Amino acid sequence: MTQSGARCRQLRSTAPAEGH
Fold first, then answer.
1. What is the dihedral of CA 13, 16, 18, 19, to 10 degrees?
2. HSE (side-chain half, CA atoms, 13 Å) at 3
3. Residues 10, 2 contacting (CB under 8 angstroms)
4. Tell me: the pLDDT tens digits for 1-20?
5. pLDDT score, position 11
6. In which region does residue 15 sit, left (phi positive, over 0), alpha (psi from -120 to 50) or beta (all else)?
7. How high is the pLDDT of residue 8?
8. Which pTM does this prediction carry?
9. CA separation for the pair 3, 15 (Å, rounded)
10. Are residues 12 and 20 in contact, defined by beta-carbon separation less than 8 angstroms?
11. pLDDT value of position 17
12. What is the 3 state secondary structure string of 1-20?
């Protein structure tokens, strides 16, 4: 689970409350 983590991290950086 590395790609998923990196993707989630980027999404969190730009949107810390969009889906997860």
1. 100
2. 0
3. no
4. 466 656 666 656 565 555 55
5. 59
6. beta
7. 61
8. 0.12
9. 18
10. yes
11. 58
12. CCHHHHHHHHHHHHCCCCCC
Residue 18's pLDDT is: 56
Q: What single-letter amino acid sits at 1?
A: M
**Token pair 């409350």 in the structure block, residue:** 17
User: Tokens 């790609």 — which residue?
Assistant: 3
Give the pair of three-digit tokens for residue 12.
């969190």
Q: How far apart are CA 13 and CA 1, in angstroms?
A: 18
Rounded to an integer, what is the distance from CA 5 to the centroid of its chain? 7
